[in-house]
Amino acid sequence: MRRIAHLTSAHPRYDTRIFIKQCQTLAQQDYDVTLVVADGLGDAHEAGVRIVDAGKLAGRVQRMVRSTRRVLAQACQIDASIYHLHDPELIPAGLQLKRMGKTVIFDAHEDVPMQLLSKPYLNRPLRHLASRAFTTYEAYACRQFDGIIAATPFIAEKFRQINPRTVAVNNFPLLAEFDAAAPWEGKQRRACYVGSIAAVRGIRELVRAFALLRCGARLALAGQFSEPALEAEVRNYHGWNKVDSLGQQNRAGVRAVMAGAMAGLVTLHPERNYLDALPVKMFEYMAAGIPVIASDFPLWRAIVDRSGCGLCVDPLDPVAIAGALDQLITQPELARAMGQNGRRAILDTYNWATESVKLLAFYAQLRAQAPG
User: Fold this and answer.
1) Which of 121, 205, 283, 350 is least surrounded, with the fewest CB atoms within 10 Å of its CB?
2) pLDDT tens, per residue, the chain with 372 residues
3) What sign for the dihedral angle of Cα 199, 201, 203, 208?
4) Alpha helix segments (H runs only) across 8-65
5) What are the DSSP E strand ranges found in 169-227?
6) How many other CB atoms are found less than 10 A from the CB of residue 197?
7) Residue 263 to residues 59, 208, 210, 317, 352: CA-CA distances in angstroms?
């Protein structure tokens, strides 16, 4: 049981590093690893991992139906022993692979039923109906799978009630991607936000906060807007003249944005799906050696306070966000010390090296339990 296929139909291969991190970790242990994607960027090889592109389709419905079929077709051609699914859209494909006698893992990055409750394109009754329906289907399917990998302890606890073969493998940063904190000297008065840009991720409040700043800082905004109408709206805010909109960045671009910033922003709204999440960007800011300004959720505050790596604010209050920014930008020694504290916490605790051990142990257990 050495040939493994990781499958995703919803994410470009560089949209998140968790797929590549897991694949490369397994490849280093002499597994034959293929990552099947549907992003239209073509086939490739990266650090021992073969990447197969099933082609990109536009639109949510097309992706959920036709991309899933294309990814499944590529998966069957690979004829792997273990199939590792990274998207809920691929659950039907996973059930089909189980019927073919394959070992199937589902990687639960999010609590999808909770997430459905905040989808802006669904009205309220439909959100609740969709959430309940997916809860039932998810539980049925995941009982059939050979194991569940969860992106946070909270998600793992949920899935252990469904499938006892569940392990939490947190998406902490690769130290090699942030091998050293950028020099503090020469940094401009700039904060950054990196990631998907949406209303529930706090973009309205961020832009309004920059209109209130006394310190004259600018916002380096790196990512894509989830909705064109939202981008048009915030571009009309007074604070937009303090924003440098950089668009989607590759990993080198992300590192450059963080290296030039004096603080990193992760002020997501208090949606149920976020309260117990572990935001990747917060840990990446810490790895880059910059202080974080984070939503004042109990879990996030515990991490920030324990590490001494930043400030927590009410994410719905632009005045509070502006106050935290003014404090860090006008006190560079405080900001630098908090950044160093965050970097130290990454080196000691919140890094992929600590998580890869759990991933490899999980796969070893699957191999030991395999028939024959």
Assistant:
1) 121
2) 589 999 988 776 655 567 888 988 999 998 999 999 888 888 888 888 899 998 876 656 556 667 888 999 999 999 998 999 999 999 999 999 999 999 999 999 888 878 777 776 677 778 888 889 989 999 999 999 999 999 999 999 999 999 999 999 998 988 888 877 778 887 889 999 999 899 999 999 999 999 999 999 999 999 999 888 999 999 999 999 999 999 988 888 999 999 999 999 999 999 888 888 899 999 999 999 999 999 999 999 999 999 999 999 999 999 999 999 999 999 999 999 999 999 999 999 999 998 999 999 999 988 877 654
3) positive
4) 18-27, 60-62
5) 190-194, 218-222
6) 23
7) 35, 17, 13, 18, 23
- Starting at the edge strand found earlier in the chain, the sheet holding 292-295 runs 243-245, 218-222, 190-194, 263-266, 292-295, 310-313
Give the predicted TM-score (pTM) of the model. Answer: 0.86
Tokens of 83: 């199939």
Distance CA 160, CA 139 (A): 11
